[in-house]
Amino acid sequence: MQRWLDDDKDYLMDSYGRLTDEEIAAQLGRKPTALRGQAKRLGINHRMAIYSASDVARLFGVAVSTVLRWRRRRIIRARRSIIAVGTHRCWDFSEDEIERFVRETPWVYDPRRMAPGEYLTNIARQIVKADPYLTTDEAAVIAGVSCWTINEWCRRGLPCQRRYMKGGSYLGVHVVLRSDLRTWIDAHRGPRALTA
User: Fold this and answer.
1) What is the chain written as a DSSP string?
2) Potential cystine with 95: which of 13, 49, 74, 111 (Cβ 3.0-4.6 Å)?
3) In the prediction, which pLDDT does 114 show?
4) pTM of the prediction?
5) Please, which pLDDT band fits residue 191 given cuts at 50, 70 and 90?
């Protein structure tokens, strides 16, 4: 029996579900049955959804360059595709990784811009409904202060994040969780609570 090298396993993980079993087997010099057995041991299958950068951009309603910027900043992880466009290889995003991104970094994207009807969009909207991130404009209305004051509170320790969307009203603006804003207001209530 031929031993599976790490490079063979990597090629199998990168190719499985995108090339036919016969194509992969020919490339690795193995039988398709051996290939399927190894895929099962590695926990991969043909139905694992792979998204291109364009697919992810369409899902989140942003430009492809925004998705690639998220990847460069390691906000979302991707692997190199075996598919090339010209001399450049594309990026592949797994469905599991996109779901992790949706659940763990809700300040980065805007669910209102996401493709309707997708289950990941529904997850994003549930997260936002439970405890939404507010822009400085929205937070200012709730707190009864100016946007400048909200930004000052962020500098003083109000937990916040920055949105990385390109263009529009979300370019690098601070966003704060509604629950964090309420906690901050309650903790700093007093004669100078609502002034910077």
Assistant:
1) -PPPPHHHHHHHHHHBTTB-HHHHHHHHT--HHHHHHHHHHHT--TT--EEEHHHHHHHHTS-HHHHHHHHHTTSS--EEEEEEETTEEEEEEEHHHHHHHHHH-TTTS-GGGSPTT-HHHHHHHHHHHHS-EEEHHHHHHHHTS-HHHHHHHHHHT---EEEE-SSGGGEEEEEEEHHHHHHHHHHT-STTTT--
2) 49
3) 92
4) 0.62
5) very low
